[in-house]
Write a structure and sequence with these properties.
Layout: E1 6-7, H1 8-15, E2 18-20, E3 26-27, E4 29-31, E5 41-44, H2 57-62, E6 67-70, E7 80-82, H3 86-97, E8 106-111, H4 116-129, E9 134-137, E10 143-144, E11 147-148, H5 158-170, E12 175-179, H6 182-186, E13 195-200, H7 208-211, H8 214-227, E14 231-234, H9 238-246, E15 251-253, E16 260-267, E17 270-277, E18 280-286, H10 291-306, H11 311-320, E19 329-332, E20 337-341, H12 346-357, E21 364-368, H13 379-386, E22 391-394, H14 404-412, E23 424-427, H15 431-441, E24 447-451, E25 458-461, E26 464-467, H16 470-483
Parallel strand pairs: 4-5, 5-6, 6-7, 8-12, 8-13, 9-12, 13-14, 14-15, 20-24, 21-22, 21-24, 22-23
Antiparallel strand pairs: 1-3, 2-7, 9-10, 10-11, 16-17, 17-18, 19-20, 25-26
Helix pairs in contact: 3-5, 4-10, 4-11, 10-11, 12-13, 13-14, 15-16
């Protein structure tokens, strides 16, 4: 049954705010969006990066809000709770209104630059094998069972986050596997959440336009480990090693740690290894390819172990996962292997190219691009990482409001001499043409990596999102090539 909500009197006491108006008004939902108000909603006006929510209190009232939470004087007949900082209390308000759902569901938070999506998908598969009902929150999908939820962010806003946790709880979820982004941690989107387990995958440069520097980015990620009840840390990473030093009781994951893999066998068709956990070991086969996916699987296995799942069930769950959309997703193995991957950080690009190099006898051809209105500092680093390929096609990703040609030039500036000479490079603004050029350049035994967008089904250009799927475009061109 849905939680009955809270009165404004109870909420005012909870956040030590000043209440004006009917204190017996019952609130069953909290929203930051004056246009989306469900149930008996408390509209909370937050000062955003671009818009001040206080401008929309009248619109919220017209759209059905039953009360307001503000940090400055407003004129409204609705019961109004005034606090010093609405952003600081919105998570607490939302958690209270929905009955603190994380206290009755085991929430596993996964953070890191790369691997979050794969680890959460693997956890969902393990839960299914263990007979547990598991919700999933993240970049590719937000769902519980057959119910899909809209989610515009990797980690939703605090109001949406608590509402999702409550919906999954009410639907019978026993676990929730959630990606927890650095933005969400810095902006307190997951405040007032009990994390039964917090997991760290790795850290490399990304999102520095928001965080300002790598140390600030790391500090944001580390906040998840601070609040988690138990911790799983991948330590084959300098930042993971730092976290492990700070939390010596954590379950460490690595090539020579309590959670580890031995006898790793990589192939173009999947991966086999021996899984070692503190309570036993088992053979494991992944449909997912690459050593980096073994690392992801070990992190997921560590989390499941802490939740009480035995090693045989964990291995079976990992083996049951067929694919993670846009994560080293094989589009074709006929004649030329074509792979779509979300890699958009320098470290991610380097890892995918290294994985591909070990899979085929021929050349590695990489299609890369960088997003507009985002961390410009990583663009030449992306070009440098891509230089490990034999042929690099630099193209548009999501240019957003920037000139795509200028973004391409900034990425291409990082291309470096990695072997006898610079890698062959082609600059093509149109992404469809770039994918076609990469596939046309490939010979039998080569592999084409289409990087950056992964699972995405649109391309954002000049404020407009146009339908675009790397997988679909690649298949269409492969079909044309086969007919020729």
């Amino acid at each position: 049954m849905p939680y009955p909500g809270k009165t404004m009197r109870e909420l005012a006491s909870l956040v030590d705010g000043e209440l004006r108006g009917d204190s017996d008004t019952v609130v069953t939902d909290v929203s930051l969006d004056s246009r989306r108000l469900g149930g008996q909603a408390l509209f909370t006006a937050v000062h955003g990066q671009q818009v001040d929510g206080h401008r929309f209190v009248s619109e919220a009232a017209a759209n059905g809000a039953v009360a307001l939470c503000v940090s400055q004087q407003v004129t409204s007949p609705l019961p109004t709770l005034r606090v010093a900082d609405t952003r600081a209390v919105v998570g607490k308000l939302a958690a209270a209104v929905h009955g603190r759902p994380s206290e009755t569901v085991a929430v596993v938070g996964v953070t890191g630059t790369n691997g979050k999506t794969t680890v959460t998908f693997q956890l969902e598969a393990i839960a299914t094998e263990a007979g547990k009902s598991c919700g999933l929150i993240g970049t590719v999908a937000t769902r519980h069972g057959r119910v899909e939820y809209p989610n515009p962010h990797t980690t939703p806003e605090a109001t949406d986050w608590q509402r999702l946790l409550a919906a999954m709880r009410d639907g019978g979820a026993e676990w929730i596997a959630a990606e927890v982004s650095s933005h969400a941690l810095a902006l307190d989107r997951v405040a007032e959440t009990r994390f039964a387990v917090g997991a760290f995958t790795n850290l490399s440069q990304d999102h520095l336009d928001f965080h300002g520097g790598l140390e600030q980015y790391f500090a944001a990620k580390a906040r998840l480990l601070e609040v988690a009840e138990r911790r799983v840390i991948w330590v084959e990473d300098s930042y993971g090693a730092r976290l492990a030093s700070a939390y010596p009781e954590a379950l460490t994951v690595g090539w020579n740690h309590p959670v580890r893999a031995s006898r790793v066998a990589l192939s173009p068709h999947g991966t086999e290894f021996r899984l070692h956990l503190p309570d036993g070991e088992a053979d494991c086969r992944l449909h997912l390819r690459g050593r980096f996916n073994v690392a992801n699987a070990l992190v997921a296995a560590g989390c499941a172990h802490l939740l009480g799942v035995d090693v045989a069930t964990i291995a079976a769950g990992l083996a049951a996962l067929p694919v993670v959309p846009g994560r080293f997703e094989v589009v074709s193995t006929e004649n030329v292997m074509v792979v779509v991957d979300y890699a958009h950080s320098p470290e991610g690009i380097a890892t995918v190219i290294e994985t591909a190099r070990a899979m085929v006898p021929g050349r590695v051809i990489a299609v890369i691009g960088a997003g507009g209105d985002r961390d410009r500092g990583k663009r030449p680093l992306m070009g440098s990482a891509a230089s490990a390929a034999d042929l690099v096609v630099v193209t548009s990703d999501n240019p957003r409001n920037e000139d795509p040609a200028k973004i391409i030039d900034e990425v291409a500036a990082g291309l470096v001499d990695r072997r006898a000479g610079r890698p062959e490079a082609t600059l093509i603004v149109d992404r469809r043409s770039a994918i076609a050029a990469a596939i046309d350049a490939a010979h039998p035994g080569d592999i084409v990596l289409i990087l950056g967008k992964g699972h995405e089904t649109g391309q954002e250009i000049a404020g407009t999102i146009r339908p675009f799927s790397d997988q679909r475009v690649a298949r269409e061109h492969l079909d044309r090539r086969a007919r020729r």
